[in-house]
Amino acid sequence: MIIFPVVIIISIFMYLYYKIMIANEPEPLKKEIKNAKARIALGVFISFFGINQYLFYETQLSLFITIIFLFFGIMQGYAGYKRLSHYKKEYQKRVEVGRS
User: Fold this and answer.
1) What domain of life is recorded for the organism (predicted)?
2) What are the distances in angstroms from CA 95 to CA 37, 48, 79, 89?
3) Which domain holds residue 80?
């Protein structure tokens, strides 16, 4: 199962990338968009980390921990997705007003 560690590593690097890019962004809406993308990457990381731990140990305790990790990972990903869609719409409105 090489796919889970690869997804875990890519998602943690994407999380760190977006968090670092927030500091370099002067516009507040773009900061919020990048923060939402970072939350999605964090949700993917937490979810896949939990699944990977269950597949590695396969015990009842790791199943409960995996369920908790999946819950928090899905919540992070969903909240990030909702923020991303909201702030992208706001950014598009700002761009349209700027063109007019």
Assistant:
1) Bacteria
2) 20, 36, 24, 10
3) 3-99
